[in-house]
Amino acid sequence: LLLMKDESVLKHLLQQEAKKKESVRLAESKIAKLNEQLQATEKVLNANKIFLKKLQEQIHRVQQRVTVKKALALKYGEELARAKALASKEIGKRKLEHSHFGVSLFFKFKNYCFEI
């Protein structure tokens, strides 16, 4: 009777052992898969960090170009406005000179004709 009871306990313990071994094996397998996923994710993370750094460098270069071009556009716009103002002033002077020149020639010619 004790032998049968011990054999029954042994059978039950062996079943528990088998279940726990399977549970440990499944957990270890799951850990291995998670480690593989972690390594793959870390590779993606590192690649993204490198890409982000290059992207930020490119952004910085383009921002510098834009800043320089805006400053040049402002400078050239101001120079153009000054040139237009100067040209307008010169055209105004020439119109006055031509109108005085034309009037004075007319009077000179008229006076010359009367003298003859």
What does this structure look like?
With 116 residues, the protein is mostly helical. The chain has one domain. The protein contains 1 helix and no strands. It has one helix at residues 2-115. The model has no long low-confidence stretch (mean pLDDT 88).
Number of domains: 1
- The whole-number mean of residue pLDDT values reads 88
Outline, from the CA principal axes?
Answer: rod-shaped
Judged by helices, strands and strand pairing, the structural class is mainly alpha
Radius of gyration: 49 Å
Q: Tell me about the largest β-sheet.
A: none
* Elements, N to C (H/E): H
Uncertain runs with pLDDT below 50, 5 residues or more?
A: none
Beta-strand level of the residues, as a percent range? under 5%
Portion of residues in helices? over 70%
| Number of DSSP helical runs | 1
- Count of beta strands: 0
Q: What separation lies between the terminal Cα atoms?
A: 166 Å
GO cellular component, one term: nucleus
Keywords: Coiled coil
Coiled coil: 17-72
What's the gist of this structure?
This protein has one helix spanning 2-115. It is mostly helical and 116 residues long.
Question: What are the SSEs and their pairings?
Answer:
Elements: H1 2-115
List keywords for this structure.
mainly alpha; coiled coil; Red1; single chain; rod-shaped; 1 helix; 116 residues
